[in-house]
Design a protein that fits this description.
Helix 1 packs across helix 3 (about 100-110), helix 2 packs across helix 8 (about 240-250) and helix 4 packs parallel to helix 5 (about 180-190). The chain has helices at about 5-25, 30-50, 100-110, 145-160, 180-190, 210-215, 220-230, 240-250; strands spanning about 90-95, 170-175, 195-200, 205, 210, 235, 255. The longest helix is centred in the N-terminal third of the chain and has 25 residues, at about 5-25. The chain has a single domain (about 5-55, about 75-255), classed as Rossmann fold (3-Layer(aba) Sandwich). The protein contains eight helices and seven strands, in the order H-H-E-H-H-E-H-E-E-E-H-H-E-H-E. It is globular, with a radius of gyration of 18 Å. Strands 1-2-3 form a three-stranded parallel beta sheet, with helices on both faces.
């Protein structure tokens, strides 16, 4: 990675944090901590990891037009990723409550019009506070936490069978890895050798009910994954170089991340290296 490329990705990460803070303040609440925890991950993904089709110009997000049915086509946020090409990657966001960070990343990457955020968390808007299939950047509705890896595995298997060169890149949070569905999907992905899938897991140690260790501890997370046959790397989730290097590595199976929590009351301070 060049210094220029790294500087651009770092700028994207801080842009994600600033946008997340601004919209959280404007709406009187929101998923700010998730954006602060994962800003570098999203910036690295949209800055250099994801192989996406180039867009002519940023896309404007519209309104939610209703569920698919007769005369009403399926609406998907996949067009913001320019998907559809056999050589391009799919991006699956499993924790839909990270949507604010995703929207901010799309703007920073020049894939979504900035004005689209004026409709954030407003009734009838596709820019929902918890992303769904019709929301910008959301290729599927991940539903209950833990479902994203199942859908990503299915897409990866289909792409493997078709012989497509594009990968499936999955973004997860550590709290959803407590579910049985997650471990069943890991087992299936490893058994079928889905080397065309990469999973980034934001291991920040917290979930809505408190610390991971006090709700349902999943550690040693990396060793459990390795026991299923996954290729695992634990890195600092705020380290741009590490995020980019692993995302560009060939035939990676599953990656997990470890980073130190951001300093209390200091969302814009770098966590220590």
């Amino acid at each position: 990675m060049t210094r220029t490329e790294k500087a651009l990705i770092e700028k994207m990460a801080w842009g994600i944090r600033r946008r997340a803070l601004a919209h959280t303040l404007a709406r009187g609440g929101g998923y700010l901590s998730q954006a602060c925890s994962s800003a570098e991950i999203f910036a690295a993904l949209y800055g250099c990891v994801l192989r996406l089709k180039k867009l002519d110009s940023p896309i404007s997000a519209g309104r939610f037009m209703g569920t698919p049915g007769p005369g009403r086509p399926v609406v998907t946020g996949a067009n913001f990723n320019g998907s559809g090409d056999a050589s391009c990657d799919n991006f699956i966001l499993s924790p839909a409550q990270y949507a604010l960070a995703l929207y901010a990343a799309l703007i920073e990457a020049g894939r979504m019009d900035e004005k689209s955020m004026d409709a954030y968390d407003i009734d009838g808007s596709a820019v929902e506070i918890i992303g769904a299939e019709h929301s910008p950047g959301m290729e599927v509705t991940t539903g209950s936490l833990g479902q994203g890896i199942s859908q990503a595995s299915g897409i990866a298997m289909a792409r493997k069978i078709k012989g497509e060169t594009g990968r499936v890149v999955l973004m997860m949070s550590d709290g959803e890895c407590q579910s049985g569905e997650f471990w069943e999907a890991v087992q299936a992905a490893c058994y079928h050798k889905l080397g065309n899938m990469i999973a980034y897991v934001d291991v920040n140690g917290y979930q809505c009910d408190g610390k991971m260790t006090s709700v349902m501890n999943i550690e040693p997370f990396d060793k459990r994954l390795k026991a299923f046959g996954a290729r695992v790397h634990r890195i600092d989730g705020h380290n741009i170089d590490s995020l980019a290097r692993l995302g560009r590595a060939p035939r990676a199976d599953v990656y997990t991340l470890r980073h130190r929590p951001l300093q209390r009351h200091g969302y814009f301070k770098r966590s220590p290296s």
